[in-house]
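Page header: ASSEMBLY MODEL / two components / 432 residues total.
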Amino acid sequence: MIDRDPPVTEEELHAYVDGELAADRRVAVEHWLGAHAEDAARVAAWRAQAEAIRARYGAAADEPVPLRFNLDRLARQGRKWSRFAAAAAVAALLIGGAAGWFGRGAWEGAGPARVVTTEAFDAHRLYIAEVRHPIEVKAGENHLNPWLSRRIGYQVASPNLDTLGLKLLGGRLLPGNSGRAAALYMYEGTSGERFTIYCRRDQQPQSSLRYRATGPVGSVFWIEDDMAFVVSGPADRARLQKIAETVYEQIETRQQTGALLRMLSDARP
Amino acid sequence: MSGFRQGIQATIPALRRYARALTRDAEAADDLVQDTLVRALRSEHLFHGGDIRSWLYTILTNLNRNRIRSLARRPVISPIEDNDVPDASGSEGGARDIARALASLVEDQRVALLLVVLEGLSYREVAEVQGVPIGTVMSRLARARAQIKAYLDGERPPLRRVK
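Prediction written out in full:
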């Protein structure tokens, strides 16, 4: 047989197997496979792989959906974390707790929470006092966020707190509890007051936002997605609450927004 | 139930299948699906139409990447199976082969292959989920298939020679 068509590429062989090939080329590929035993064997092997994968995992989709995936229930569970409810949650927690921090007993019982907030407090106090070297990498340097993300093992981006009058100075890497790396971002307000965001991996159950104050330093703490976040600054509840909400919202929406924006921009033909 | 929720509901079985193949661990897979659902429900205000299935696959794929990263930071103790010759008799042996072959892939290649052959997504949809050009999806697929073939060929006990 004479090959009138241009030679078939490996890409076309894959597209053929996956049903992505235009009809005219499909015929060409079939002719080609008739004449090229080696390619025919590869195509057969790929099909066998796909069959084996479907045979092994396909049935998972036929299992009855367990109760834990009940959407109404999951939505209720998630609602207290929705961006609109975050403010209410913080407010509810911040009201009361006359002296010191809210729910003192509950807080002290929460060992891991105390560990991570103590780390954050120590770092905050140590570095905000630095005049010349408060941070390691300056804001605006492109590698700040990729570097910290890589080292702490979580995709972080420094929240933008412009609307609150806080300017990002930069960040640094710190050794957290049991060697887990932590990232510290530092912000400065118009009158020179400094705030920090401390974050590191923490395999604790998701927690609500909690406020704690020790002397002149206050902080709001929460755990989400196996990450602990501590926002610290001058012990001004209302202001820390506002900052924590903003940080929470930005972290919360970033992952989905990123995925969505990517899809939306690709979806335009 | 809103259209948004209905779309999510209808995709749960497929998400479980995908997660199971992606993690090869039924329990971890269902945890991943649950996290995906919670995220999706919470982010309804971010979803402005489009293919909800692709969106859910995207969230699950991203969450799994975070999961792998956190696992990599913990020591993993697993049995050494040097002498474990794959069982060529019956489907059980074959099934275990394919699971191990999948485990030998780089994550991005595994995602591309599973979305195409198990979930039936088009190359274009996979490109959206992975946030890469279609050409990259195709090369990931090609490498995944070559690696699986090499793995299975290498593991299969040699044929007995007829004398």
